[in-house]
Amino acid sequence: MSFHVIQQAPARLNRSELAVPGSAPQMFEKAAQSDVDVIFLDLEDAVAPDDKAEARKNIIKALNEIDWGKKTMSVRINGLDTHYMYRDVVDVVEQAGERLDLIMIPKVGTAADVYAVDMMVTQIEDARGYKKRIGFEHIIETALGMQNVSAIAAASKRNESLHFGVADYAASTRARTTIIGGVNPDYAVLTDPLADGSRAVHWGDMWHYALARMVVAARANGLRPIDGPFGDFQDPEGYKAAAKRAAVLGCEGKWAIHPSQIALANEVMSPSEAEVTKAQRILAAMEEAAAQGKGAVSLDGRLIDYASIRQAEVLVAKARQIAG
Ligand code: GLV
Ligand code: MG
């Protein structure tokens, strides 16, 4: 290990994160009753310019009056390039800061963007005498944000998570797609001719690099990497496939842009019983190996060693966190 110790963000459950437009208060109660881990009330892209002021009021009222239970509550503010953003921060933190856990910063491009919001939030918290510190979640969804992802991840003690905003990322990088998430058949490999002369097409995941890059920056800074939206809410299989790819790379959650996606995210992002049992067997086998002075042993015909302990501990810790 490096001598550098990575400080971990507060251990919040973040398997699913529901997007709820601030301009749709009729959706708030249902969201509060759902099984989602994190809710972000949106002031940004789901809200039309003329509705921004009203949406802000709705969100402040809802944070203060609705019983959100133990859910982690976030607000997505507008981008730093808009004049809505300062009022989003001032009004929401001043008037509802005590029930607000996180602020989601969209289209973050540089570490200085994080610094600017940190400065504003710190002043408001101090002026109000809030005891709790509000955390930050950042959407990595522009070429600039991806270029600076490591600096952004390290930019504030408030940082908790990085989110891959696939829709805006596609727009920013001018990727050839018009859907939100999912795959494009043009991103494929054509095999050489097979024995019967035919050629197979293997679809690739055009988001692989971006997601993997973000996961590394998040983990290197003790933050949660979270996969963003999947637009086709009538395609649960497609959603689950995308969530599984993200989970395999190290993401611990995925957005739900529709309530039906909450259960799918919770399922995919929770280790299965079989995985947890296997992890517990690895830990037991390694404990026995250590008692015999061995650093590596075989379990079910496969080598396990000290790295296996660390992998197994991640799974067991996650299962414990979910169990509550
Ligand atoms: C989310 O904000 C996205 O652009 O995908
Ligand atoms: Mg976006």
From TrEMBL:
Organism encoding this protein: Albidovulum salinarum
HpcH/HpaI aldolase/citrate lyase domain boundaries: 16-259
Protein name from the UniProt record: CoA ester lyase
Xref: Pfam families: HpcH_HpaI
InterPro entries given in the database record: Aldolase/citrate-lyase_domain, Citrate_lyase_beta/mcl1/mcl2, Pyrv/PenolPyrv_kinase-like_dom, Pyrv_kinase-like_dom_sf
Family assignment from sequence similarity: Belongs to the HpcH/HpaI aldolase family.
Keywords assigned: Lyase, Magnesium, Metal-binding
Superkingdom per UniProt: Bacteria
Source species taxonomy: Bacteria, Pseudomonadati, Pseudomonadota, Alphaproteobacteria, Rhodobacterales
Cofactor: Mg(2+)
PANTHER family: CITRATE LYASE SUBUNIT BETA (PTHR32308:SF10), LYASE BETA SUBUNIT, PUTATIVE (AFU_ORTHOLOGUE AFUA_4G13030)-RELATED (PTHR32308)
GO molecular function terms attached to this record: lyase activity
